[in-house]
Amino acid sequence: MYYTLLMLGSGLFWTATYVLIIQRSWRDHSYGMPLVALCANISWEFIFTFLLPPHLIQHIVDIVWFVLDAGIFALTILYGPKEFPTLAKRIFYGMFALTLVTSFFAVLFVTLEFHDSGTYSAFGQNLMMSVLFIPMLFRRGSLRGQSLAIALCKLIGTAFASLAFYLYAVSYHHSVLLPFLYIATFIYDVLYVGLVYTRLRTATKIAQKPAVEVEQIVTSI
Description:
The protein is mostly helical. The chain is built from 7 helices and no strands.
């Protein structure tokens, strides 16, 4: 029961993460998920939607996630080249395609190697995504394509899934790798939330500064 509730919570928060990324990407004319992480993510969802479908409920969730990820992917195709102005479009798209193919086979072969339903690859790519959000934030120097809501939803969604597997997925209790992935992902997610919050506070102060200066001038008069 608790496992199901935690996984439902994880599914809802991850769905919200995808929707928020799409909204923010469309608004800011930028992509909202790190490129390598997006390639791994959509590869995972394609594999477990069409090639290795799980039980019915999870399969439905995977289909929804794949559709949303396809939206993120389309926006990345549309706005991605703008984030790399010194790179020719054909080179950007070529590297993007190569990364997608590499990610697809990496996810597929990890799943086949570990003989599981995608758990190891899912948590592994989740850690990669959590790490890559941080340099994306620093490279852009702004919250373009990102938001505090996205960061929080990702943190909560992954934390729920980690708790579900750590506490109730008995078949994985022998693993020494998964607990490391749970903890490392949580640490990077918390760090990313803190960085986004700090960036948001700084941007808010800068936006308010002219108004404060005007008020001081009026008061002095």
